[in-house]
Amino acid sequence: MMWAVALGDFDITTGGVALGLFTGSTYALLAAGLVLVYRSSGVINFAHSSIGLLGAAFMSLAIQQYGIPYWLAFAVGVLVSAGAGAATEVVVVKPLSSSPKVIPMVAMLGLSTFFVVLSLALNPDGLSGEAFPQPAGMPTGSIGSLLITKPYAAQGIVAPLLLLGLGVFLWLSKTGLAIRGAAANPDVASMSGVPPRTMMVWSWALAGAVSAVAAMFILPTVGVVTPEALGPELLLRGLAAAAIARFSSFGVAVAVALAIGVVEQIMTTNDGAKGWIEIVILAAVALALAAERQRGRKAAEPWTQVGAPHRAPLRPLSVAIAVIAVAAAATVPMYANASDAVNATLVIAVAIVGISVNLVTGLGGQLTLAQFALGGLAGAVSIRAAADDIPFPIAVVCGAVIAGAVSALIAIPSLRVRGPQLAVATLSFALVTSAYLLDQGWLLGTRQSPSRPSGSIGGIDLASGRGYYWVALAALVVVLLLVRWIRRTAFARNVVAVRDNEDAARAMAVSAVSTKLQLAFAGGLVAGIGGAIYAHAYTSLSSANFPVALSIDAVTVAVIGGLGSLIGPVLGAAYLVGLPLFLAPPAEARAGIAGIWLILVTQQPRGITGLFDAIRNRMRPAVSIDEAHETHLEREPFSSDRPSGRLLDVETVTRRFGSITAVEDASLTVDAGEIVGLIGPNGAGKTTLFEIVSGFTRPQSGRVIFCGRDVSRLGPTARARLGIARSFQSAQLFPSLTVLETVLVALGSSHDERRARQLLDEFGIAEYRGVQVGSLPTGLRRVLEMTCAFASSPTLVLLDEPTAGLSSTEREKFGDSVLTWRERTGVGIVIIEHDLPVLTRVCDRLVAMNLGRVIANGTPAEVVSHPDVVASYTG
Amino acid sequence: MTDVSNSESKASGGWYRDPSQWCDLLAIAGASIPLPLVLTRIDIIAFDANRSIRPFLALIALALVVGIGVANAVAASRSRRVVALATGALALGFVDIGEPRWVTLGVLALIASSAATVLSHAVAIERAQTQRFVGSALTVGSASVGVAAALAYGTWSPVVDWGVVTAVGGVALIVAGALGWSQPDTTAVTSTFDPRLVAREADGRPVAEVVKRPIGLIAFLAIGLWPMAAAQIRSDSVVGPRYPMLTLVGGAIGALVIGGLGHLIDSRRSDTTSRLVQTLHATVAIGALSALAGITSHTLVGAATGWGIAMACLGAAFVFASGIVSCDPSPIGRAVAVGRVIGRVLLGTALGLVASGIAEPRHHTWWLTIAAIVVLHQSIRRLRRLTVVDLESAAEPVVSAVGSTRSRDKALLDVRRLDSGYGALQVLFSVDLAIAPGEVVALLGPNGAGKTTLLRAIAGLHPTWSGRVQYGGVDLAGLDAAGRAGAGLMLISPEAAVARPLTVDDNLRLFASTLSLAEMRAARERAFDTFPKLKERLRQTAGTLSGGERQMLALSRAVMLRPRLLLIDELTLGLSPAAIADLGPAIRRLNDEGVAMVIVEQSTAVALSLAQRAVCIERGAIVADFPADELRAQPDLIRAIHLDGMSSVLANKAAS
């Protein structure tokens, strides 16, 4: 039965829907591969479609050069891609498994470029739609007015069969089960005799094979083949489906992929809808992100080895080097020809965008793939403004501010979820920008001719290609100084604190939401400056000058140079952008350039600057403890309003996680100046009770009253501002901040460095103030946690296992300092602790819990000899 | 480890007074500087040469890259390796393009790589001895040498007098290599490369000698590769079969002589094993590379012979090497290690063959270089992990804290001097533990004492720093967790309990992965027999089970697979007494079937009701060892485990 619906200007026909389902099932293959890989390694495989492309290139080569039959060559291509997938896991993903997840994902981006270039070098002519071999033995026909060609028939017949086969393999076969088991819990798989590593390689191989099939069926249907079409655009369809399925459910991913196929087909059969499919995908991804609920605790990522911003004080030597470098760079227009000067300008522009990536990704820990798209927006705005006779610098700033605002806007969906989803959202934004947004009449339209600043230096006109280089260089210097300044402010400290350990930051009254938004704005601003500089460097400009690949390059530039380093992106841009621009290498050399930086990044996740640092660290002692130990600072009296009366009243709270009841009808009171110890065996619910009091978990019933006020509905940041300070069992704090900076974060808005030093001095850790927390031994970290807990002059302090991992003398000292602080400030303190000797010495009262319930409450002597308590320990 | 004290005493003088340091430096310089030049030359030849022999020339180039890679990867720190490998690849690729400026760039990159290698070595020596000034001078000096060489080469381009280079370079290499090889390893330098050692030093604990720097290997490589390279150069643009065959024979003989000599000398030293391994590796590398050269003969017979020798050489030597590493009389450990290594070698070779066959001759070098570097780097990593085994020979009886001496002869599990931890934090301190077959041991101690870490380390889920774990007389160092589980050593812990997203049925099938279909059916029946409740829950996701049911499912893994030794960590955590009562009989039944166990339990009473022996651990060290009955009779001691501290109570008892 034929039907057609007219929806406004849109025609929806059976043929269109059928065709959409066909392509959709191919996207579903891509999506299934992405989900498979994500489930096994926690990495979004941005090289997914390019791995498939490599196999397709081989297939095409085999058929066209060696005359191998189609389906045999098909098998060869699938095997090649499977091998490439497995190799990717072994070579890139595994070595990076202990780095933050951003690094392997960026490596995947680079790998994607590598594979695309390699495929094109291998088979330069055989990849376009016309030349690519058509599937043999497929029927042709028509649905309504639409002709179903062989590739579409293959998409409609083979792709669903393969999906089915994949499902059967994963759910019914032994190997499939082993793959799923290893992904679900590697330890259990190991203990069942299944090596999880091998299974991980298997799933990458499987994903590679599946993506090869997708590429082989899609390639004959596309016209011109560009790295763009093969890389991000194709990937986005699968990626969006996988992201909406939260990278966990195969079923949802397949369904969404089918839907995307249908929508896309309907869009393309209707004219005037260019770029709309990207917009639909962006909207869907954003909605899915917004609908996601935060589940469980966020595990802190090991950021220390990558993002650690290096904040060496300015030394005369480094100032001199910087000045000489800038001066040397400034001489370029004197001897360079115009085209070289323009190339150098472009390198600078990319470097500036790379610096913005370093803010968002390096400092903030969020992978963003839209920085150059933001730059494109800024460029368009700036060109428009400059055309209206607004002075050049102001035009650039206008563009940058708008880019910053848009950047903050697209960061909103990612505020609640931490993970790879922001990458997907920004990637779709980047595609929307280059495919739709920039083409609009009010931005770039079809083509623009940017103006440049007027004036001249030394006889070289600033509007010329050579003169404009100076403008770009000046912008770079300004941006470097700006970012350098940002990295020294309290804001940067908070950003790193939120990145390193969001929970601890919130417990110290740092608002994660506003920090992230401000960072996104700053990132967009810097990217905007870079984009505007880039845009004005061209004499004629269209949206084609802002391909998505550039946004990806910007991330790569930051990673090659060194995430978290100030100067890194400049080096990275010189390598990644400068080398090809100046040397114009042949295709295979470009593959080599990509291959080399991949090796670099797998070996030294901190990139080029990481290499330099490694050499420098060899020459200097690794830990630089401040040698100038200052004399004791005077003790400032604490604010006179000592708390009094009942501080905390937890009324019969209950918290269940699924079928497990962590806390049941528990009550707890704390008076001012009282020290309460909370004891009980593992799993008794002590920490959950802390979470309830500090606001990280909402109880299902019961109330939390703090200083006479019901705070049950407040979040942790708000409760921290009211005066509830807490420490965490893990004592992780913020591994990449220094001791002094950590205390400054805890001090909150006052940012009084003198006060921070005084506190450190009082807790006896003043000499470590310059040391990174990540390299502190456990004992000192516990002391630092205490310092932070008391820094904000709280009313109530919750300490979770403060003496775990301490030596006996350190435990003694801990007891002393708790007692001293209670004397001086009159705060109420609750301590979870297993070390009973310490507790009995310090506490006025002990509360014992078991199986979520409070089983005893009284003086230490009473509680310790309480029969229920003894029984709860000895069973 | 006498070497440590030796090098410390050396450290008091300047490093430059120690000839071995100079030799090391010279050897590395010798190995790294001329090789890249040779490489360049070969590739230029490849570019000019006949189409049909290009793939073979590429293979030689590959072999050379492998050689450089081996030298750098085995000997050096991470950053040095990166520099060397990356620039090596870059250079080779650029040279392949064949245009003068790219060739120059490639050569510059290679020289930079060499300079970086020398430089970082110099810096490493300098840092170890804290002679900052000398180090800086060295750094500047070698950097300027590098730059000067690069400039010279760039000016003269590829037409240099190769005869002179050959003569001078060859002599320098052989002298430096021989000197370097004859010197003992210097532990002080080694330790600066190993973060684990540095961490432990900061902890105030002695630095153990874990990693050896196989300086001899580099020297061997230098010596072995030189004649081959010389042969290639002299043959200029036409590569005949004669020179490579000469090289093959010469290299093989040289390798044999050097290897044999090294073995003779080494066998007289106390610390033989690691040096033996090095010698072997070197022999393997030279033999294999020489054999690879053999395949340049473009007759079919020559190629076949070449490949045959290469494969045999690699395979046999790896077998030998891993046999030494596993260092066990028992065949299982060796077989496992050997099988794995052979498999990897064959795979790498096959990959190389396929790649070279398929690739366009013009573009092959990029591929092969990158593939070679990658395969090589990975296998080196594996190899290094295998060789980092603490091989102490002392077998003194272990005295437990209460003074009883236990025989270790019949132990099923024998843990000796095990150290482990997380990052810079050491958790386990020289733990000794022996479990007899069929014995149930309760491991008791307060939270954070290291119980979980110990169990995970035994099961292979957590890396050990030093010490060894023997199981059934086999050293487990080369065996991963899955292999250990397959051999009947299994852990059930809160992390390694069930796969929550999977259904109960899938979990049971996963547990039975290693079984045949018939065995699996029987195993499932056993599980249902023990825990009938599971049968009703087959379709349910494991994550939605109640705590008790989940632990039943976890325990059914042991019921199904019947391990020889079962490690149980906190099986009853957070469970109600009724649920605990369901699990107890199953554990007892397992023990009746002969399964030995180590049980960690929050509840001392539960643990002691199951165990025959109780071992107490405190702050990462074993402090006491009692028969379970004896401990049950002393409630004050039981209380001490969690509340007062066992060691202090024991000390009090001893005093009174």
In short:
The complex is a heterodimer of chains A (875) and B (656). With 875 residues, chain A is of the alpha/beta class.
Q: Helices, strands, pairings?
A:
The complex is a heterodimer of chains A (875) and B (656).
Chain A lengths: L3 E4 L2 E4 H28 L6 H19 L3 H24 L8 H21 L18 E3 L2 E3 L1 H23 L1 H11 L1 H6 L4 H23 L8 H18 L5 H20 L6 H16 L12 H4 L8 H15 L1 H4 L2 H26 L7 H17 L4 H20 L9 H15 L20 E2 L2 E2 L3 H24 L1 H11 L1 H6 L4 H26 L10 H14 L6 H16 L3 H17 L3 H13 L26 E12 L2 E12 L3 E5 L6 H9 L6 E6 L2 E2 L5 H7 L1 E3 L12 H9 L5 H10 L15 H14 L4 E5 L7 H18 L2 E5 L3 H7 L2 E6 L2 E6 L1 H6 L1 H8 L1
Parallel strand pairs in A: 9-14, 9-15, 12-13, 13-14
Antiparallel strand pairs in A: 1-2, 3-4, 5-6, 7-8, 7-10, 10-11, 15-16
Chain B lengths: L1 H10 L7 H14 L1 H15 L5 H22 L2 H20 L2 H30 L2 H25 L5 H21 L4 H7 L1 H8 L12 H20 L7 H25 L6 H22 L5 H27 L4 H28 L5 H24 L10 E2 L5 E2 L6 E10 L2 E11 L4 E5 L6 H9 L6 E6 L2 E2 L5 H6 L2 E4 L11 H8 L5 H14 L1 H5 L10 H15 L3 E5 L7 H16 L3 E5 L3 H7 L2 E6 L2 E7 H5 L2 H10 L1 H10 L1
Parallel strand pairs in B: 5-10, 5-11, 8-9, 9-10
Antiparallel strand pairs in B: 1-2, 3-4, 3-6, 6-7, 11-12
Helix pairs in contact in B: 2-6, 2-8, 2-11, 3-4, 3-5, 3-11, 4-5, 4-11, 4-13, 4-16, 5-6, 5-16, 6-7, 6-9, 8-11, 11-12, 11-13, 12-13, 13-14, 14-15, 15-16, 19-22, 20-22, 22-23, 26-27
